[in-house]
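Hi L., both proteins are below.
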Amino acid sequence: MARRKWFSGVRQPAEYCQWHHKVRYDKISAVTAANARWRDAHERLRIYECPQCGGWHLTSQLERDHD
């Protein structure tokens, strides 16, 4: 049975990144999920594109500076 993730009141199958074991979103869904987390829990999340799977993930970590 596929894993499921509750997302803005809609139950949908969740895909996971095999490298980071995080939910894999398309960009619009990642922004929507981050906004929902802010609305529901006042937790600010950043989205980033995964270099391994090409999907988008959420993180609470600050963006790293690259020299």
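That was the first. Here is the second:
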Amino acid sequence: MRCSSLFALIREQIRAGGPLTAAAFIDLALYHSEFGYYSRAGRRSGRGGDFFTSVDVGPLFGELLAVQIAECFDCLSRDPQAPTPEPQAPIDLVEAGAGDGRLARDILNALERERPDLYARIRVRLVERSPEATLAQGETLGPHAQRLRRGDGSGTSNRAALPDGVVGVVYGNELMDAFPVHIVVMREGGLREIYVGEKDGALLEIEGAPSTPALQAYLDRVGITLAQGGRAEINLAAGDWIDAAARRIDRGFLVLIDYGHEAAELFSGSHATGTLMTFSSHRASSRAADWLHEPGERDITSHVDMTTVRMSAERAGLTTLGITDQTYFLLGLGLLERVGSSPSQTPHGAGSRTNQAKTLMLPGGLGSTHKVMIFGKAVGRPALKGLSYRVRVT
């Protein structure tokens, strides 16, 4: 069994080198090249998977995101502070954490139908760590696959790295919540870190000194002191990824959609036990140490610290254009106007457009838990449709 194989691998690694940080364990559980949760399947979400995303609701989400992407592409030509590209110059559409390409397909379907002038110029890059998902992308994209460019622009076929010199839009939907996180807890003597140890053949949590001073520095940077006994996840990888993305964008936009909170809320008493959760067969669990069970067989996720994302982006030279709830983002892009569109645009099994809209705006669900963060580089401060409700975050 794959689960047994990964469990044995982790157990032997601990016996040989000592306890693992939670981040190291989660990276193995999710992304081990042979046994990792995401590495072994081309798709993990949807009715037959372990959890739902906005993409699983139907094509309406991708259609609306295409409206925002088209506006961003138009802004690249209008910005008076930057050189105006040639009318037929290529523009980049880059999805990070693209999975099997379903969201890209929905976006490209909409752009081909509604903005053929832009569609004709698009170079698509789908960044994905899972080899199984990457293999499925060509079939998922169908005729759009001719616009797909492989590799990161460095002359290699690195599917997991963002390309260099992006002029266009980089976007990610539920990307950073799946990054491996460190787990910390505040004790009377100061900050401690949770490690994964092994005893009598079982995996268990062990407290120890922080593995890196970057953990305390992270909390200091956002002005957070955990309460005694407070437990939290620290996503160092998110800041690193934002920094790398900013370097790869020459001119354009970064659009990130994920569930999370500002640091003051995320590290408050309302999340005193942290936000780490596992998903399996649409059953969520946040019980202590459940994340150690069956490595490679269940999703492991945690809420995103939007304060750190914003600070990292601005420190890397990006401009924060806005942060808002998914509901207000989609309303600004014309969700209500699209609900009455032709049923012929809704594929079999996707549900009515009215039901798709309700699910995407569900209070306490996708509509309010998911936040949209948009950053720009060398594009000025355009008034984007998706941010027309200003900063509306619940």
